[in-house]
């Protein structure tokens, strides 16, 4: 009867066995989903006991400010001293931006979360860098020729630019790894041809090249080293001592010739077919550079160069989109002009990735945007201009070479996200808080070009104390749906040094008080404080209603960065 | 009589101490607005108001004035020049002769020295140029006792609050004998000693590759010479002319043709005698001073100069001999006093696989300004082609030991010794042709490989002919072009029977290299030039003067032309006559997709035409042979395209050209 009593005990007190199980990990099947996908989540339960155990896993999703979606529970049998997975899924039904998936075991225990993003265009909520939450990757100069050969014939090659060692097997394996996690892979593309196969194109089509006034190769890049071409043997590094030479044989096509444009576009199609690239990020698209054709005519043949460049870009996109309708296009472009040019409109159209590499120079003390406030405002302005044309502004990591990095990386990322910019190449591993998780979860309030900056923020918000907090440049409004308005205020504990470089962490601010002036005809619906400090969290705030009709929110502490989101709705 | 004795005695005593008479110690004194500087050897008159230069130059040993009457030149004239346009845009012109401030710094007994100086004029052809603003140029002329050596210390002070990049030019115009017809000049270049005389073409008047810091002029009919010593490290170019163009003519040619300075000087008439050199531009920070020293040595009893330095000036003679011979070395003291000299060396027989034969040894106890000649015996016949390397060691006046070496090349083609200054008229056969430097009979080819060089299939063909190939690859960087290897001297170039340029531009060789190449061909070398990217027009052949000795000349920078349906027309007669090819017209030539549109020169023999365009042409230049292929190895290369360079016609022509060029 002993065994019967034991069974009765287990049935009556299941927690006893559950006590030997715990949920040890939760992960989203992908870090990035397309809106029409069904998201999958896996929780792993570990049994530390010596008997098989059952565990019931609960799963819940959070999105928007605090919307909860319960996905129910699953009971799994966990072998002794073993692990078992419990899987949930959910149709995303087109709802974009950030999600948190949370799981915990029935009967108590810790809750574990993971985060993922949803968008049609990955760049819209794009995180790129060394983070596990990076949802796209940009593979630099991997191809035999970034212009004309992205589908190498052989298994093994050196890239034309950089002479990096590649094999099809290795690249395919990496591609599988990215795609399995939902990470989109963007190839590097260039309006400059190079490497041995690129030089073959030049030899075959000298009429496609730009020339300078001396009748020699011209345009943006041009370099030849016959020795390196002669000794280009991937199986034998020859005199290089086993190292690549890092020499880029290259030439600049004259894209007045539409045949050259279509050649480059087809090379991208061929590359995407071979490896599955999701997009291209041009480091110089197929624009016409100054100089001459082989026959001494100017490269633009006296025509409007801007119009020709727009023509080229449209040709390129149309050619590629015929085969890959969701292909992403990005450009190392800088910033759009005011008023925007036709080319500005074309690159931004459809969520184009607009990279401003110029940000990498801002760490130089003499740079006009070296002061943090200038750096931050430049991001705001560029995001606004690009976003108004439908593009996604990319902020290149500031080049911190030669300076001691203390809080520089944290502030760079904070100003980037707070300004609505998509960071490129930033370091997420050395930040004080998990900014990658936080920005994945709350991308709706950060990387959302529907957020309009408040032109007179002091009419809506007033940060009563302390006075040093930066907030005025980072106040916006957003209408998530008809009749609802959300006011977003970033609270930033400002850098304790004027310019980028060796910026120390500030002392935390405490007892912050923010007044909110409720717009006429509206009433307060709810308010949330979103924060990465110390872990990703969003919590509802209880306001204090003042006699003058304003409300006051209290924020107990601020180390670096928090967001206040106040939602109002029309008065009934 | 006694009365007259005292009168004569007093007159003589007064004369020896008067400024105008010979004096034991150097002196400087005013003569009106001019300053006289003299010692027992030299009498110089400096005119501060006219360019701060020496307007009268007399060597008291012959008592004759070196300045031509009525001319505005003089010694030690100077100016800045614009680095990109050194010959055309001087800071102030010769005729301008801007006034300098002048003063005597010292007047014996030890030294006599005079300082002249002035602020620069920040205008160039009446256009403001900040690069010349607020520079002060200063020269200090110094004579020491007992030497015919004039020392000139030059300083450029940057008085502006910002940096400057001046480039300094120094020139002297004088005639050593009765007539400029007998004037000769010698400059050490990387290609050997470069000598010349009246009416030389401008390309010979310039030495863009100075090897040492000296230059000399001489008149061997009166055996007078002047050697100039200067710092060599920043030297850009020597220039000499016994007849030079005027500023007006330069303007005219520049405005009319807009062409390369070398071309202008080749085609302009003459009017001046000049010996000059240019220093490279120097970065001069605010408050900075650039300084250099020049020494002029006036020599008598001189027949030639093979080497010069602070310690001695040397002449050399190695006459043809029977079974044994001797090399004569003549030495003169230079700026330093020297003693206990040992002279020795070796002779390298270039006719017999560079065999080295030691020379005998000679001693000289003391050396003064009168020449001392020593004979170094050689226990073999002095060969027709020989390199003589001379070692001179000794002790200078400061007790410091020194050893100096210099080389000279004997050339059997010239009756005169290569470096010497013949009279009355130079021939242009003076250069050291050493084609006998290939005693093992091996064919050596230097292949300058540019883009698509391999399409011509030359490497295999040359190896099939037993040739040894030195490959040198072309490089193009953002701003520059280069080849990995090119001979630094004519002697080195002449080791090769054939130099091939396959789409390599002239700038990658530099002016020096282009001149080496020209001299190489003139001395018997062969040259094969192919079209392609970085060749002919786009190869800057015209701008660098490279096409001046090719059979085909460049018409336009952008001469690369798409092929058309024009037929390839071989000249069967010439192919047979020159290359010994029998099947010129019967061959199949494929398609010429790209070619350079060039002009054939009068002396060109066009072997193949594309329609009317010259496609392959040959010519001779001096003792050498040149072949040019105007076709470019560009365009589709697959079998369907059937390119020219894959045709049976080209296969035969390639063989024929290589045999002709290698003289097989």
- Helix/strand/pairing category of chain A: alpha+beta
Q: Into which percentage range does the β-strand content of chain B fall? A: 35-45%
End-to-end separation of chain A in angstroms reads 68 Å
Distance between the termini of chain B: 90 Å
Number of strands of chain B: 44
Features:
heterodimer; A: 572 residues; seven-stranded parallel beta sheet; six-stranded antiparallel beta sheet; 11 helices; 21% helix; 30% strand; B: 664 residues; mainly beta; nine-stranded mixed beta sheet; 9 helices; 44 strands; globular; disordered N terminus
Description:
The complex is a heterodimer of chains A (572) and B (664). With 572 residues, chain A is an alpha+beta fold. A seven-stranded parallel beta sheet of chain A has the order 9-12-16-17-18-19-20. In chain A, strands 21-23-24-30-26-27 form a six-stranded antiparallel beta sheet, with no helix packed on it. In chain A, strand 18, helix 9 and strand 19 form a beta-alpha-beta unit. In chain A, helix 6 runs parallel beside helix 7 (305-323) and helix 9 (372-388) runs parallel beside helix 10 (408-418). Chain A is globular, with a radius of gyration of 27 Å. By secondary structure, chain B is mostly beta strands. Helices cover 13% and strands 39% of the residues of chain B. Chain B is built from nine helices and 44 strands. Chain B has a nine-stranded antiparallel beta sheet with strand order 7-8-11-12-21-18-17-14-15, with no helix packed on it. In chain B, strand 31, helix 5 and strand 32 (468-476) form a beta-alpha-beta unit. Classes of the chains: A alpha+beta (572), B mainly beta (664). The interface between A and B is medium-sized, with 24 and 35 residues. Strand 14 of chain A pairs antiparallel with strand 32 of chain B, so a sheet runs across the interface.
